Each structure stands twice: as C-alpha cells, then as structure tokens.
Amino acid sequence: MDATSGATGTATAGQPAGGGAGAGAAAGATVGAQAGPPADPLTPYLAADFPWYGLDDGWTGRRWLMQAGAGTGRSGQSGTVDYGTLGHGEEPAKHYEARDARRFAVVVTMARRDVRRSADNTGTLEATSASSAAWLAGSGLLAATWPGQLDRALRQDWMDQQTALAWDLADDLDGPGWSSLTLPVNGLPQPFRYRESEYGWVLAGEAPGVLLGAYGRGVSAYGVGFSTIPDLTAYTAH
C-alpha cells in the first residue's frame, strides 16, 4: 500500500477515548487541532483545493461535519487539507452501548496527490490512491464500532490487530476480501470495491477530481449514491 498515512493522518470522529491509537492517532494533523476547534467548523473544509462529496439527494436524513485532515502538499508545505469526512444519519456512540443500533454512513473525500515531500522534509510520500481512501474508511469504521465491553488492555490489542488487518485489506483492493459494487456518482455509474464485516461495511473508489471512501452501519451500501456538495452549510457541526 502507498505510504500515505504519514501525510494524511487517520484521525476520525468517534475514536474511543484512551484506546485505538493505531486507528485514530496517526502522524497527520487535523486542521485546527492544536489551536482548538475553529470558530467556524466549515473553515478547514473551505480551505481544501478539491471538491467535497457526500450522499446525494436520495439521502433525506441528518448531515453533519466530522473532520478535515491536513498533511503535506505537493510542494512540501504543511497544513494542506488532504482529506475529510462528512457524516450522515445518527452519530456513532462515543462510548460503548450494548445495543447500539445507530444508523450512519460516512463519506471520505481524499485529494489526489502526487509523490510529495514528507512533513519533516526528509523524504517523500507516495501518491494517494483508492487504497488510501479504503484505509481511512476502514480505520474510521473501527473507531466507530469498537467493542467497548473489553477492558483497556484487550481493547488496545483488538484495535492493533484490526487496524493491521484493515491496512492489509486496503492494500489489496483486487483481492478476495473485496467485491465489486457499482454506485451512482453525480448521477453516473461508478465502480467501487466493497466489503462487509460484523461491524459494518467499507467501500472505496474514485470520483471526478478525488478518491472516495465510505463506511457505515445500519444503512445499506447498495442503496446509496454520491454527489459533490456545493453548499456545505447543509452539514451541521456535531
């Protein structure tokens, strides 16, 4: 798999407190993370140089902002927005709930980036790809569906194990762990790679100008479609 995690980070909303460092606390920074959340939560999204995608008009439920991730741009300039996530439905529980039946779908939009300098300017990072989007979606699903009934030590072991598995799966999108699924993007059919697990589903593919990933639970992946979001004010702060 291309070495993008150091450039984009894998922080996702819903990461459990005190656990899941492998899935959520990677090297990339979230825009505004060190200085606290921006006054306007749309600010990091509006700073991106690529279009944002979410579920299309077929989705009539709630839409909410998650995070925009900053890495290193083509010229090596830090702070460039490389990816972000938009939520649909009910926010995943922040703590374990034994009968958590919340329904949600999260769309990951990732910029197409060529080979570029690392944040510390000591090396290069490979170009982003559909595998990069699959990794972000897979780690996001883990962070949203972690088994909270485990104690802290076992939970960390579980997260480490599942994160490694998610990485390996993302690195082999043409392998037997994935199937093909065609979904509309801006009204046109687009091929995706798709997989299900007991925790939910993950898919990844491409769209005009970007790479797309998505994950969800309780919402059928077979019935969703994607489109560019011209007005992000439809998404509320969570």
**Which geometry do the CA atoms define?**
globular
DSSP E strands, number: 12
The secondary structure category is alpha+beta
Portion in beta strands: 25-35%
> Biggest sheet, open or closed, and with what strands and sense?
8 strands, antiparallel
**Which oligomeric state applies?**
single chain
Helicity level: 10-25%
Report the C-alpha radius of gyration, rounded: 16 Å
Output the helix-strand order: HHEHEEEEEEHHEEEEE
What would you say this structure looks like, in words?
Helix 4 packs antiparallel against helix 5 (152-170). The chain is 19% helix and 32% strand. It is globular. Strands 1-3-4-5-11-10-9-8 form an eight-stranded antiparallel beta sheet. Strand 8 (179-185) and strand 9 form a beta hairpin. It has one domain (5-234). By secondary structure, the chain is an alpha+beta fold. The chain contains five helices and twelve strands. The two termini are 32 Å apart. It has helices at residues 5-8, 21-24, 43-46, 130-144, 152-170, and strands at 29-30, 53-55, 63-72, 78-89, 104-111, 116-117, 124-125, 179-185, 188-197, 200-207, 210-217, 226-228.
